[in-house]
């Protein structure tokens, strides 16, 4: 059975603080972010709206993509988000 990995971008609000992460269970990870269960950047800056995610079956690709996105200029990250989510909707808002 293939595992699915997710590279995701969270935002505090439209054009707000961004967080990029990787996980093998996006629903669980979003629950952790929304309920502030893990200390760190996302909790500290209240970054809990899922505005973009990508899927892959290759963990090496997922980690490489996460590192790549983290190095991107902010403008590029915003363009990536707005390509598929121009309203900056929280893609996980109906999950819980």
Task: Predict the CATH topology.
Answer: GIY-YIG endonuclease
Largest sheet: 3 strands, antiparallel
What is the terminal-to-terminal distance?
Answer: 26 Å
- H/I helix tally: 4
Bulk shape: globular
User: What is the CATH architecture annotation?
Assistant: 3-Layer(aba) Sandwich
Brief sketch in words of this structure:
With 96 residues, the chain is α+β, with helices and mostly antiparallel strands. The protein has four helices and three strands. It has a single domain (5-84), classed as GIY-YIG endonuclease (3-Layer(aba) Sandwich).
Structure description:
With 96 residues, this protein is α+β, with helices and mostly antiparallel strands. The protein has one domain (5-84): GIY-YIG endonuclease, CATH 3.40.1440.10. Helix content is 39%, strand content 22%. It contains 4 helices and 3 strands, in the order ββααβαα. The chain has helices at 26-34, 41-44, 59-71, 74-84; strands at residues 5-11, 18-23, 49-56. It has a 3-stranded antiparallel sheet, sandwiched between helices. β1 and β2 (18-23) form a beta hairpin. The longest helix is centred in the last third of the chain and has 13 residues, at 59-71. The radius of gyration is 13 Å and the shape is globular. The protein starts with a strand and ends in a 12-residue tail after the last helix. The model has no long low-confidence stretch (mean pLDDT 96).
Please tag this protein with its features:
GIY-YIG endonuclease; 96 residues; alpha+beta; 39% helix; 3 strands; three-stranded antiparallel sheet; 4 helices
